[in-house]
Amino acid sequence: MTSGAVGSAGGAVLDHVEFVVADAERSRRFYEGALRPLGMTVVIRVGPERSRTGGTRYGLGRGGYPRIWFHDGETPGTPIHLALATNDRDGVNAFHRAALAAGGTDNGAPGIRERYHPNYYAAFVLDPDGNNIEAVCQVAD
């Protein structure tokens, strides 16, 4: 077992996720606005000349490490559901407002989702490609 690997910390199971979008620049604008309240920013851009697909890749994250990647240059597939954790309900509310302002489509206003459990507070927004992006706080208010 190794320890201290770049990017892997805190017992996280997932290191990063990547998905295809129709237009990387359009998605960059959306995700920069939508994820800013969660402390995430664009960490890296990989131009078409260095990309396997010939498209542009963006990596967003916190602390200089990209956890969410997307790229164009391929045909997008079935939309995904990406849930991002936040430590408080204000973060969920701020994400929802920012994602709508960035051009997302409401897919579930902030609120408790009793069907999951009594403290599951979440909001859902569709990105420009129809991916369901969620911010969730599972801490009791």
Shape: globular
Helices and strands: which structural class?
alpha/beta
Strand order of the largest sheet: 1-4-3-2
Topology as a string of helices (H) and strands (E): EHEEEEHEEE
Total strand count, please?
Answer: 8
The averaged pLDDT comes out at 92
Rg over CA atoms = 16 Å
Could you give a short account of the major beta sheet? 4 strands, mixed
Distance between the termini: 38 Å
Helical residue percent band: 10-25%
Which runs of at least 5 residues are low in confidence (pLDDT < 50)? 1-8
> How many H/I helices?
2
Which percent band covers the strand fraction? 25-35%
Structural commentary:
The protein has 2 helices and 8 strands, in the order βαββββαβββ. By secondary structure, it is α/β, with parallel strands linked by helices. α1 runs antiparallel to α2. The termini are far apart.
Sequence-ordered SSE layout with sheet pairings:
Elements: E1 17-20, H1 24-35, E2 41-46, E3 57-62, E4 65-71, E5 81-85, H2 89-101, E6 105-112, E7 121-126, E8 132-137
Parallel strand pairs: 1-4, 5-8
Antiparallel strand pairs: 2-3, 3-4, 6-7, 7-8
Summarize the structure.
This protein has 141 residues and is an alpha/beta fold. It has helices spanning 24-35, 89-101; strands spanning 17-20, 41-46, 57-62, 65-71, 81-85, 105-112, 121-126, 132-137.
